[in-house]
């Protein structure tokens, strides 16, 4: 409580200092992210929105329902199938995706003055706190060039024994936007360490706990340790040739603008990814197999990927009658795989070369499209194809704005090298899996003015690869169909809002791809501005999903695997919170899982991994523009 009072005191002082400062961030900063393999950008909103600040942590941002061990920074998998990222060549990255700092998640800036942001999140009971500190600094050297750095640190002791997490991520980034030449660069580093407890030994410690039981005294299965490290270098450079033309609508013939017509693009990317699993003494009782007569377990796997992509394209403006852009590209990827084999390090070098093309119309409101196709010509992925289409538009219906988007793809994918070959102390396999075939069709219908959105997706997977009940990769010989309907509808009554997100999922083979049938998120809150300066949001939220045979987590290989022993779900997690925004300062207080104080139930995120009991959380962020 002393910490809370200290922070509130600081806020009162800051409020006096910030009274004279402008709080409209969008006037000072423009932000964007890289959206495609050619360095295309899409503007995003600056992270200063004050509604639902309590949800801005890696777990809740990832999905409204997740499998994880309850601790911030722990391995995680979304329970909503179409929220999961595409599988990576390095399969050990999948369970840490929301925490990894990389080009897909990096925000780039253009600022009028130096911008600094500091965020602090905290939660948990005494001596078992979880904390996250994020720091960002960015500034422009001139109107064309920006640079910056970010730091992200997590330390979470965990409410249960041997599940502590320590994670550090940092980056240096920059961009240059000139008339003919532009470039975007990133250096990102991640170091993610976590203890592995294999879950608790008996579910009765949660469903019917003995008197006086504390969460950190519940017996666990193992004492292991995992470490994940990654380094990424990314550089995209573009050179354009164009024309000078009179600005549309201008009566002054000398008022001209430069219009790029032809664009030449080169992208360089280097990734170094490493995973280690360690046991001080071999945990032979928990694992079904132990292959090597060693005093310790020290499994290692790594991959280095060097990618060069060259492309040339014509912008939409190159023809006043046929408004479309076209890009062709050539990509080469060199991969070096490393893992232990018979107690020795095994290395394998592979190369892949693909060609592709994109036809697109990205400008205009009524009709937009993007058609792309690529094929691997040379390498162990030869024959892989990827055909994608995205068509949509915006139009007015009476006073409402309507958005309709349809997307789909057809893919043939060679399984990851690590799904085919892997050796470690507790697991090893040599497989000859066939290519995976996926066909996907989806669409989104939304009415932003009505706070309504409906997203429907259907996907057919042939030769799906999954981890079976023995935590070994297995390939299903038939087809699996996934159907999902994701509905969002908010209701506003004066100063009250009820946010609703309902997801329906159906898997034709739940023993291969298990999913909860219904996932719900509801958030009821009161929002107002007090004293004309303090934005206040007071509310309660609930998360719920139906019971199903959820995958569990295997620490030694960092994978979620299917099981048929224990169902998870049919238990709500309720939070109450207060969220406040004062000029450039935001802070919140939240009681997470408050219903655990007065109701009993099996509050498991996945088999033998309970979510945290009722805990207090808080967060604070400052933004500075000088």
Explain this structure:
This protein has a 22-stranded antiparallel β-barrel. Strands 2-1-5 form a 3-stranded antiparallel β-sheet, with no helix packed on it. A two-stranded antiparallel ribbon has the order 3-4. It is globular, with a radius of gyration of 26 Å. It is 5% helix and 55% strand. With 626 residues, it is mainly β. The chain has helices spanning 2-18, 58-62, 204-207, 417-420, and strands at residues 29-34, 41-44, 66-68, 76-78, 108-111, 115-123, 130-140, 145-156, 165-177, 181-196, 224-246, 256-279, 297-314, 325-341, 344-361, 368-379, 385-397, 400-413, 421-423, 428-430, 436-447, 452-462, 465-467, 473-475, 479-493, 496-507, 518-530, 534-545, 552-554, 559-561, 573-582, 585-592, 604-606, 609-610, 615-624. The protein has a single domain (2-624), classed as Beta Barrel (Maltoporin, Chain A). It has 4 helices and 35 strands.
Percent range of helical residues: under 10%
Count of DSSP-assigned helices: 4
Low-confidence stretches: 4-23
Q: Judging by the overall fold, what is the CATH architecture? A: Beta Barrel
CATH topology: Maltoporin, Chain A
């Amino acid at each position: 409580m002393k910490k809370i009072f200290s922070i509130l005191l600081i806020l009162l002082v800051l409020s006096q200092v910030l009274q004279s400062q402008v709080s409209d961030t969008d006037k000072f900063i423009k932000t964007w992210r890289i959206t495609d393999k050619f360095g295309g950008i899409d503007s995003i909103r600056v992270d200063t929105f004050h509604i639902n600040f309590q949800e801005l942590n890696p777990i809740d941002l990832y999905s409204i329902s997740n499998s994880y061990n309850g601790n911030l920074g722990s391995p995680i998998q979304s329970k909503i199938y179409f929220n999961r990222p595409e599988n990576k060549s390095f399969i050990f990255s999948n369970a840490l995706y929301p925490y990894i700092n990389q080009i897909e998640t990096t925000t780039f800036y253009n600022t009028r003055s130096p911008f600094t942001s500091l965020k602090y999140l905290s939660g948990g009971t005494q001596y078992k706190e979880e904390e996250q500190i994020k720091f960002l600094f960015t500034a422009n050297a001139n109107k064309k060039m920006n640079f910056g750095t970010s730091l992200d640190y997590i330390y979470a002791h965990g409410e249960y024994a041997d599940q502590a997490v320590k994670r550090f991520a940092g980056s240096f980034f920059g961009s240059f936007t000139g008339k003919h030449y532009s470039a975007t660069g990133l250096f990102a580093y991640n170091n993610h360490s976590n203890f592995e407890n294999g879950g608790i030994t008996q579910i009765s410690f949660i469903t019917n706990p003995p008197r006086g039981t504390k969460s950190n005294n519940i017996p666990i299965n193992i004492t292991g340790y995992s470490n994940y490290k990654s380094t990424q270098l990314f550089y995209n450079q573009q050179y354009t040739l164009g024309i000078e033309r009179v600005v549309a609508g201008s009566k002054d013939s000398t008022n001209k603008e430069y219009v790029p017509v032809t664009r030449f693009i080169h992208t360089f990317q280097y990734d170094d990814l490493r995973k280690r699993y360690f046991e001080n003494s071999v945990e032979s009782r928990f694992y079904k197999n132990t292959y090597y007569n060693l005093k310790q377990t020290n499994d290692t796997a790594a991959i280095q990927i060097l990618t060069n992509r060259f492309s040339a394209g014509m912008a939409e403006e190159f023809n006043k009658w046929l408004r479309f852009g076209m890009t062709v590209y050539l990509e080469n990827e060199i991969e070096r795989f490393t893992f232990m084999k018979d107690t020795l390090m095994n290395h394998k070098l592979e190369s892949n070369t693909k060609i592709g093309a994109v036809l697109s119309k990205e400008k205009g409101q009524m009709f937009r499209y993007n058609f792309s196709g690529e094929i691997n010509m040379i390498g162990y992925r030869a024959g892989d194809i990827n055909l994608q289409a995205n068509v949509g538009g915006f139009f007015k219906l009476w006073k409402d704005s309507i958005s309709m988007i349809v997307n789909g793809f057809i893919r043939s994918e060679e399984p990851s090298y690590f799904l085919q070959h892997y050796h470690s102390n507790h697991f090893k396999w040599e497989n000859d899996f066939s290519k995976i075939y996926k066909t996907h069709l989806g669409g989104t219908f939304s009415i932003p003015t009505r706070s309504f959105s409906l997203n429907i997706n259907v996907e057919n997977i042939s030769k799906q690869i999954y981890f079976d009940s023995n935590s070994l990769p297995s390939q299903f010989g038939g087809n699996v169909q996934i159907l999902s309907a994701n509905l969002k509808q908010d209701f506003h009554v004066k100063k009250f809002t009820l946010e609703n997100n309902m997801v329906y999922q159906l898997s034709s083979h739940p023993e291969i791809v298990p999913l909860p049938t219904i996932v719900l998120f509801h958030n009821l809150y009161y929002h107002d501005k007090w004293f004309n300066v303090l934005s206040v949001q007071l509310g309660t939220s609930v998360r719920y999903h139906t019971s199903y045979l959820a995958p569990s987590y295997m620490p030694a290989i960092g994978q979620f695997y299917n099981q048929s022993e224990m169902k998870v779900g049919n238990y709500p997690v309720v939070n109450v919170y207060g969220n406040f925004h004062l000029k450039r300062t935001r802070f919140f207080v939240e009681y997470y899982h408050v219903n655990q104080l007065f109701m009993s139930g099996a509050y498991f995120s996945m088999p033998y991994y309970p979510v945290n009991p009722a805990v207090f959380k808080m967060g604070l962020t400052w933004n500075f523009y000088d």
